[in-house]
Amino acid sequence: MLNTKVVTRFAPSPTGLLHAGNYRTALFSYIFSLQNKGKFILRIEDTDKARSKKEYEDNIVESLKWLGIKYDEFYRQSDRSDLYASNLKKLIDSGHAYVSKEIPKEVGDREEVIRFKNPNKKISFVDLIRGKIEFDTTDLGDFIIARSMNEPVFHLVVVIDDFEMGITHIIRGEDHISNTPRHILIQEALGIPTPLYAHIPLLLAPDRSKMSKRKGALPITDYRDRGYLPNALINYMSFLGWNPGTEQEVMSFDEIINQFSLEKVQKAGAIFNEEKLSWFNKQYIDKMSIDDFVIAAKNFIPENISPKLLPLIKEKISKFSEIKPLFETELSFINPLPVYSFELLKWKQEKDLVNTKVYLGHIVEVLEVMTEFTKESVKQALWPYAEEKGKGNILWPMRFALSGKDKSPDPFVIAEILGKEETVKRLKYAIQNI
To answer: Do 308 and 341 share a domain, yes or no?
Structure first.
């Protein structure tokens, strides 16, 4: 190995918005570096000049920052052209590579490229997740390592960068396993050591196909904008392909770092399930204080909202983007009462609407003399009457009269949020129209 200090890297191409599968690779590499008190490097692989865009690079940096994944060093391959050119010349001069005259198959194809001279040998390496892997490189032929002296391709630049940056452990997706023999051949030709490899399972869509944008895979910033918490996403992604071997699922980042092990990473693909992500997010929301909740959800909570509503909102959502729809459904009672049919005030087992009027009248009488007006005190005052007359007969018309809808929080919660004056006013409105 190049050194005894663990050095890992995340090396994305800025040719599109990356999805959770890409960032799970970054996360595993980051966790492993922290676990070993090592170094984590971000390397932007932008040698594809036609497809690489600054906006995609910016999104990668923004996503890692939001997730809390901190890199110790940053590199951009487009800044390192001289390094690649000198190593390419070294390979040509030593006879390990050569300029190949090509017969263009299509318009625009190169008439000349640089190929690696394949020694056609068997190669084996020990994958930290999959064990010993063997390849016969004969099938690879003399593969392309550059389009010209100034246009190296992935196979060459990744080997040079990993060596120059002192990468000790390459943690990447299993789709790169087939690239590894090429990289080992180039390492041997350049006389540089082979790092340790760990190929993690791919993330799969719910139908077990490879995760992709067409299969519902979203950029990390989309999850942020939909109201997921970074620590929930980190927790969930950690469990995609790895398990500590216990029943515990909700874990702090420190707990994950302490328990993570490449040896426990599974070989089979891991299914990304947004319902499960929402479950994780809900666990983290539930553990929040109201103050922390307000800070985290500040971009989603309407202005001038009653503080009394906050615990109710926190209880009902699994992600912050669900807040706005609540005000159009269950929490719409805070708006002026909608026009509703007064027949709907009657509980389904009550035959006479006159009885409902009597029930509502008694509720008003009880509430009007109350001094303390909380959900607990309102419930305590009305519960004996509800048990006597039937909970549905009392609580249904009260709830409907306060909300004007058949789906809403329980009437005691609504009463506290509306306050005594508005509560009594709405109940009397119902009584007057029966």
So the answer is: no
Residue 78's contacts (CB-CB under 8 Å, 6 or more residues apart) are 44, 46, 47, 49, 52
Residue 190 and residue 183 in contact, taking contact as beta carbons nearer than 8 Å: no
Residues 343, 300 within the same domain? no
Q: What is the DSSP string of 221-249?
A: HHHHHTT--HHHHHHHHHTSSB--SSS--
Which domain does 361 fall in, by range? 334-433
Is residue 1 a part of any domain in this protein? no
State both tokens at 422: 């508005």
Q: Residue 161 is inside which H or E element, if any?
A: helix 154-164
* Boundary-marking domain end, from 326, 353, 376: 326
Asked if the structure places residue 44 within a domain, the reply is no
Provide the residue-wise pLDDT of the chain in tens; the chain has 434 residues: 445 799 999 999 999 999 898 999 999 999 999 999 999 999 999 998 889 999 999 999 999 999 999 999 999 999 999 999 999 999 999 999 999 999 988 888 899 999 999 999 999 999 999 999 999 999 999 999 999 999 999 999 999 999 999 999 999 999 999 999 999 999 999 999 999 999 999 999 888 888 776 666 789 999 999 999 999 999 999 999 999 989 999 999 999 999 999 999 999 999 999 999 999 999 999 999 999 999 999 999 998 899 999 999 999 999 999 999 999 999 999 999 999 999 999 999 888 899 999 999 999 999 999 999 999 999 999 999 999 999 999 999 999 999 999 899 999 999 999 999 999 999 999 999 99
φ, ψ of residue 218 to 5 degrees: the values are: -110, 150
Does the reported pTM lie above 0.85? yes
**Residues 282 and 360 placed together within one structural domain of the fold:** no
Are 75 and 165 in contact by the 8 Å Cβ rule? The answer is: yes
Q: Would you put residue 216 in left (φ > 0), alpha (ψ -120 to 50) or beta?
A: left
Q: Is residue 164 part of a domain?
A: no
Domain boundary residue among 299, 326, 353? 326
Number of structural domains (the chain) is 2
Residue 223 lies in a domain: yes
Distance CA 217, CA 21 (A): 8
Q: What is the CATH number of the domain that holds 413?
A: 1.10.10.350
* Domain CATH number, residue 246: 1.10.1160.10
The H or E element that residue 196 is part of is strand 196-200
* In a shared domain, residues 293 and 238: yes
